[in-house]
């Protein structure tokens, strides 16, 4: 395997890792699950292709599991309930049968809005072909054909290293960001703020904020700081492909910090309304 750290396989891995990450964070999470903003057709197509590069579950399955996670967080109905331990919340939940409560409560989650979108319905119907082509075939073909990389190196870097890093970056939001960090907005819940997770998961590690204000398109108060997803969404907003961005109310934020935060918030909250 090439030892050149700037080799085509590394560059391709980083590029496709970022593309797949954007599909998860901006697409499956902030757009399809939480409807934090609206997207015009060109951006919706981009999100769908980027999500396909991630090689995870179908959009409908991903959204259903995440909506259940928010509605029944840290209960037996939570697919990756962190009360069952770090390993379970990270990857263990994907290695065993779902708890009966997950299946029962999952049936109560309304995902009809997804299949009303013709793009999502088409993706759902042909999901496996999208996954195989955009996650494995296309990223693997590019380094050998365009840059003369060996097939072995390309397969190892793209299909294994890139894929494993991408999956673990997503899973870290469910595990690390529920165990290690502070709780400036709501100390009563398990999700925490973890900058390390935000670095690898493109801004998804500000999890205490996200669970307190799940409708905020930034998934954080910090805007674009370690939040590549918010940066790109703002850029798409400037060209009109993304619009109607939802953000957390300043008054509500200050109230939550003052009443329920763990005291780790570094901003000014003197004028917060206490209820």
TrEMBL record:
Official protein name in the record: Fatty acid desaturase domain-containing protein
TM segment ranges: 12-32, 128-147, 153-180
Protein's GO biological process: unsaturated fatty acid biosynthetic process
Location in or out of the cell: Membrane
Keywords per UniProt: Fatty acid biosynthesis, Fatty acid metabolism, Iron, Lipid biosynthesis, Lipid metabolism, Membrane, Metal-binding, Oxidoreductase, Transmembrane, Transmembrane helix
Source organism superkingdom: Eukaryota
Domain notes: The histidine box domains are involved in binding the catalytic metal ions.
MF (Gene Ontology): iron ion binding; stearoyl-CoA 9-desaturase activity
All copies of domain Fatty acid desaturase, residue ranges: 10-214
Topology class, membrane: Multi-pass membrane protein
Required co-factors: Fe(2+)
Family: Belongs to the fatty acid desaturase type 1 family.
GO cellular component terms, semicolon-separated: endoplasmic reticulum membrane
């Amino acid at each position: 395997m090439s030892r050149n750290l700037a080799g085509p396989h590394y560059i391709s891995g980083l590029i496709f890792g970022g593309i797949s990450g954007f599909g998860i964070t901006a697409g499956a999470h902030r757009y399809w699950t939480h409807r934090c903003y609206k997207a015009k057709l060109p951006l919706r197509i981009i999100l769908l292709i980027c999500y396909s590069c991630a090689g995870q579950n179908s959009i409908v399955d991903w959204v259903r599991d995440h909506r259940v996670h928010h509605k029944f967080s840290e209960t037996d109905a939570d697919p990756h309930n962190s009360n069952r331990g770090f390993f379970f919340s990270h990857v263990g939940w994907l290695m065993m049968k779902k708890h009966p409560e997950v299946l029962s409560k999952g049936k109560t989650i309304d995902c009809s809005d997804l299949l009303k979108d013709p793009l999502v319905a088409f993706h759902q119907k042909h999901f496996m072909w999208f996954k195989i082509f955009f996650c494995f075939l296309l990223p693997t073909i590019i380094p050998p054909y365009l840059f003369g990389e060996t097939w072995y190196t390309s397969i190892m870097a793209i299909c294994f290293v890139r894929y494993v890093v991408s999956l673990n970056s997503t899973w870290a939001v469910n595990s690390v960001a529920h165990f290690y960090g502070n709780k400036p907005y709501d100390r009563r819940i398990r999700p925490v703020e973890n900058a390390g997770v935000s670095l690898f998961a493109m801004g998804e590690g500000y999890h205490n904020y996200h669970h307190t204000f799940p409708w905020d398109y930034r998934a954080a108060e910090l805007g674009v700081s370690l939040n590549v997803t918010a940066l790109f969404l703002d850029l798409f907003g400037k060209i009109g492909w993304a619009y109607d961005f939802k953000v957390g109310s300043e008054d509500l934020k200050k109230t939550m910090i003052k009443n329920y935060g763990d005291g780790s918030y570094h901003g000014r909250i003197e004028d917060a309304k206490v209820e």
